[in-house]
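Hi R.,

Here's the chain you asked about this morning:
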Amino acid sequence: MSQKTVLLDLSDLKNPTCGFGQIALNYARIFSELSLHDLRFVLLLPIGYPQDLEQKVECHYVDRKRKSSYRGVPHVDLWHSVNQNQLHNNASADTKMVLTIHDLNFLREKGWLSQQKHKWRMRRQLRRADQLTVISEFVAAEIEHTFGYKKNDIKVIYDAVERIDDKPQRKPAFVEGTKPFFFTIGQVRMKKNFHLLLDVMKQFPEYNLYICGDDHFAAGRLIRERIEKERITNVVLPGKIADEERIWLYAHCEAFLFPSQGEGFGLPAIEAMQFGRAVFVAPFTCLPEITGGHAIVWKDVLTQTMVDSIHKNLPHFYDDDERISAMKEYARSFSYESHVEQYLAVYRELLGQQE
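And the predicted structure, written out as C-alpha cells:
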C-alpha cells in the first residue's frame, strides 16, 4: 500500500487562546508524533509560528489573508480544513477535501445581508468538500436545514477535550480570600450571554463570579459599565488568564455557569465536568446534547429561572458521589485518541487506504 499525504490546515494557531487555536495546538502536537505506514502528514501553520515541529513533520507557513503566501505549499492527496473559516488553499482538483464546520453562528449574530454573504461562501466550500464533518448533531441539523445537505452525508465527530484535571494549578491573584465563587470562561461577546449573569449575582451576594476570557469586545465594555453603574461588587472580569489559573478555577468553583446561545460544541462545560463541578448551561444550540444529561439545563435564561435552578440544585449536588463519578467518566470520554482515530478512518476511506 502506497503512503498518502494528508495536509492539516492549522493556520488558526495564530490565535492559540480561542477555541480554534486550542484545537490547532493539540492537532499540531498529536499529528506531528504520528508515524503510520499508510499516511504521512503535512502541517500548514501561520507565518511566525515557532518552528519547533519541523524535525518531526513537514511544515509550511502561510498568511491566511494573502493567497500568494500559499504558493509553495505542496500537492497533497487530502487537504483537511479544520474549521469553516479557512477559505484560501491551493489544493488541486484531484486533492480530496475534508471540511469541518463548527457552527453556523452567523445565523444568530449577523444581519440579513451579512448572512447571505456567509451562506454564499459556505455553499462554495460545501461544493468543494468530498467529506463534511461537524462537531455536534445540532450543527448537522442546522446544515441540513440551511443548505439542504443530506444528513447521511455528514459525519458527526465530537470535538476532543484535552484532559486537564491532572495538570498544574495556580490560584489567581484576583481571587478574593476563601469566599466561594462561580466561574465562567470564553470570549466576552454578546452571544455568550455573560451579561445576563449580573442580575443573577445580585441574588447571590455570598458568592463571587469570575468571568474570564478576552473581554475587549462590546459585551465586555457593557458588563464593566453595568458593574460600575449598578455597584455590583461580586462580579469580576480579569480578562485572559493563564492555563494554570483556569484549571485552578475549574477545580475550586462552586459551580460553572454557561448561559451561552452561540456554541457549536461548548468545550468549557466538558472541562468543568472533568473536575466534577456542578455545571449549569443554557437550553440553546448544542449544549443539552453535548453535556449528555450531566449538566443542569436551565429552561430559559431569564434571571429568576437561573436563580431558582441554582438554589434548587446546588446545595446537595456534591452529596451524590455516583453522579459526580459518572460525570467525570463522561467528560473523559471526549479523548483526543478517540477523536483522531475517527479522523484517520475518514482520511483512509477517502483515499482508499482501507486494508
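The CA atoms of residues 251 and 275 lie 6 Å apart.

Let me know if you need anything else.
M.
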